């Protein structure tokens, strides 16, 4: 068992609860960690036997292109897509951060983490 992680994927996207957020957009960060059995990939040295992190990036980028109201929805969408592409993984953890969220004061990032 092992993990593969992509950290700090950055996107400019149009998510947010408020209509204004969906119009002006914002910067977001996504982290993805997949837990699975990598023994065959380690033994055979074959990309086809592992989780391709280039594909993980594509899944995240596609999800970030679809406007959503909640960070939870974005994380859930990414988890569902990773599980559809790699049904044998043990778990998928996704964090989605919004930079400078509109909270009425100073806040560097709002972050949601889901494990599925």
TrEMBL record:
<comment type="function">
    <text>Catalyzes the conversion of 7,8-dihydroneopterin to 6-hydroxymethyl-7,8-dihydropterin.</text>
</comment>
<feature type="domain" description="Dihydroneopterin aldolase/epimerase">
    <location>
        <begin position="4"/>
        <end position="116"/>
    </location>
</feature>
<dbReference type="InterPro" id="IPR006157">
    <property type="entry name" value="FolB_dom"/>
</dbReference>
<comment type="pathway">
    <text>Cofactor biosynthesis; tetrahydrofolate biosynthesis; 2-amino-4-hydroxy-6-hydroxymethyl-7,8-dihydropteridine diphosphate from 7,8-dihydroneopterin triphosphate: step 3/4.</text>
</comment>
<protein>
    <recommendedName>
        <fullName>7,8-dihydroneopterin aldolase</fullName>
        <ecNumber>4.1.2.25</ecNumber>
    </recommendedName>
</protein>
<comment type="similarity">
    <text>Belongs to the DHNA family.</text>
</comment>
<dbReference type="InterPro" id="IPR006156">
    <property type="entry name" value="Dihydroneopterin_aldolase"/>
</dbReference>
<dbReference type="InterPro" id="IPR043133">
    <property type="entry name" value="GTP-CH-I_C/QueF"/>
</dbReference>
<dbReference type="Pfam" id="PF02152">
    <property type="entry name" value="FolB"/>
</dbReference>
<keyword id="KW-0289">Folate biosynthesis</keyword>
<keyword id="KW-0456">Lyase</keyword>
